[in-house]
Amino acid sequence: MAESFHSVRLIASRCKGCVNCTKRCPTEAIRIRGGKAQIIESRCIDCGECIRRCSSHAKTAVTDSLWDLARYKINIALPAPTLYAQFAVEISIETILGGLLRLGFDEVFEVAKGAEILSLPIKEYLSSKDTKKPAISSACPAVVRLIQVKFPELIENLVPIDAPVEVAARVARAEYSKKHHLHADEVGVWFITPCPAKMTACKQPLGLEKSNITGAIAISQIYGDLLKVLSQVNAKADYNAASWIGIGWAIAGGETAEIEDVKKLVVHEINNVSNVLEQVSIGKLNDIDYIETLACAGGCIGGPLTVENRFVAETRMKQRMQKLKNEYQSAEDSLYRDYYHDVSEVNERRVIEPRPLMLLDENIFKAMDKVELIEITLKSLPGLDCGSCGSPNCKALAEDIVQGRASETDCLFKLRERVRDLAQEMIGLAEKLPPPLDKESAEE
Amino acid sequence: MSTGQEIILEYELKASNFEVAGEAASKTKRVLQQIGVPVDVIRRIAISAYEGEMNTIIHSLGGIMRVVIFPDRTDLIFEDQGPGIADINLAMQEGYSTAPDYVREMGFGAGMGLPNMVRCTDKFDIQSELGVGTKIRMTVFH
Fold first, then answer.
1. Ramachandran class of B56: left when φ > 0, alpha when ψ lies in -120 to 50, beta otherwise
2. How far apart are CA A26 and CA B136, in angstroms?
3. How many domains, in total, are found in chain B?
4. Which residues of chain A are under the pLDDT cut of 50?
5. B131–chain A nearest CA distance, Å
6. How far apart are CA A380 and CA A358, in angstroms?
7. What pLDDT sits at residue A408?
8. Residue A105: closest CA among A82, A135, A127, A75
């Protein structure tokens, strides 16, 4: 796959060129050019914040569709636990999974199961002496990318263990290709995703050489079809049900709910995450062992590709967890062990590369000159951070000017100043008379 | 390497001004990222800057932090207006702290500030006079 795959895209015809998205982007990746928003790909972390903010619905996430299933002999659906929160609790998880089968999938495997499998290796990692503290959760791909671009010094704090969906995909692909006597390539593994960040992670895996996920289908895209078939579900899905522990990963705090004896911190919403990471990077919070970080407010249930209001979704999720907790039998512990060897491979995953976006120039001398120039340019700007220039704020414009991506007169106030100066000069010129007519100066 | 090129950043630090603690360190970090200083070096500078900031805010009557960034090194200079340190050797010991209880309750004042600064920097120099003030000068090579 191309190195620059991004799920978040612009539908140019809908974009009015307003500046709302530029101002909310956590990595300042959007500029308005030619009356339309433009995403700077190297900065974009696919968090989907712009999708949420755009009132014209001009931002979208590219995901796969049910049509793509035809390309494979067998298709497995990997529903994120967030999918369950889109439906009233009276509709059982089993029914929802049965609905997925009716939509054309041959098998289902819960991502919650993948999360559950991970619980043990994460605990072991946290109790190891070599662990860099505070350890930062790597389950949310938008957070991992935020660290790559904005906090490369914290890459070593990321837990070097794959995300639940990747684990689920590996186990599901192996199990079902065996069961159906097929080559692993003949099996389609489809993630039913609440966010574009995870869509991008399938196409451009973080750390892994190649993802086991074939593609991703947005919850919002499949929701309508699923709703229609739910009443027709009669055959029970044959699957290995996840417990409350795995399901809980859909909400903030779920990942660490079962981890005890460590000092933990739960942070959600991308700008909050950014603020906390800033603190970690200057040496604060060094008494914390583990930080659960989620790009969306409320956790995955707040994902931009979900349908249900996140507060409703959270309540439903908690009810479902409670129900499963009552049924929970600890005999399942043996199941973790079954998959444990598969998961332990993840320790060998590829190192996550820094993608620093702050760097002004490869040459340190030029970069230092640019720092000074930006400072001087910034002082000449009005400091209102209005965004009318198409850059998110005055500081970003100063940087864009110095980098040759914008000009000073892109600032409305600077433009007005220039027009005023010119107008004054014109008046001055207009008042000048040729010597034969200039009687006033002759009298002096 | 001496090219005469340097970036100077200066921040005023007020006594007990906890709300803005860390801002100077964060801003310094951003500039170092912009010019491409290696990440592990940035981390050491940022931690030293933050520790120095906290020390000035907690213990002094107010002072300044001056950052001088050269292509090959960064100097961090803290200067305060007193009250000065009675026994520097004691102050340099890990775990020794004169921080008042309300500061410790906030999770600061563990007596690791100065030792941390020594550990993170390549050169560390401290001078203090009671009733006059303290001056700390640190250098980290890039």
1. alpha
2. 36
3. 1
4. 1-2, 331, 334, 344, 346-348
5. 30
6. 22
7. 93
8. A75
Alpha helices in A151-195 (DSSP H): 164-179
Round to whole Å and give the CA distance between A147 and A153.
8
Range of the domain at B135: 7-141
Q: Tell me chain A's radius of gyration from C-alpha atoms.
A: 27
Chain A residues near any Cβ of chain B (below 8 Å): 152-153, 278-279, 281-284, 287, 354, 356, 358-362, 364-365, 367-372
Return the pLDDT at A334: 46
Confidence band for B1, pLDDT divided at 50, 70 and 90: very low
Amino acid at residue number B85: I
Q: Assign residue A342 a region: left if phi > 0, alpha if psi is -120 to 50, beta otherwise?
A: alpha
Q: Could you tell me if residue B107 is inside a domain? A: yes
Element (H, E) at A75: strand A74-79
Q: DSSP class of residue A202?
A: H
Nearest CA in chain B to A275: B26
This model's pTM is above 0.90: no
| Domains delineated in chain A | 8-61 (3.30.70.20), 66-348 (no CATH), 364-431 (1.10.15)
Tell me: pLDDT of B103 over 90. no
Q: By a Cβ cutoff of 8 Å, what residues of chain B touch chain A?
A: 3, 5-7, 22, 25-26, 29-31, 33-37, 39-40, 42-43, 46-47, 49-51, 69, 71, 107, 116
Residue B23 lies in a domain: yes
Q: What is the pLDDT of residues A88-124, one digit of tens each?
A: 999 999 999 999 999 999 999 999 998 988 888 888 8
B1, part of any domain:
no
How is residue A245 written in tokens?
């522990």
**CATH number of the domain to which B36 belongs:** 3.30.565.10
Residue B2 lies in a domain: no
- Which residue among B7, B107, B116 sits closest to A372, beta carbon to beta carbon? B7
Question: 3-class secondary structure for A15-56?
Answer: CCCCCHHHHHCCCCCEEEECCEEEECCCCCCCCCHHHHHCCC
The strand pairing partners of A78, in sequence order, are: A191
Question: Which of B7, B22, B50 minimises the CB distance to A371?
Answer: B7
Q: Smallest Cα–Cα separation from A57: which of A180, A204, A190, A220?
A: A220
Sheet with A264-268: strands ordered across: A135-136, A290-294, A264-268
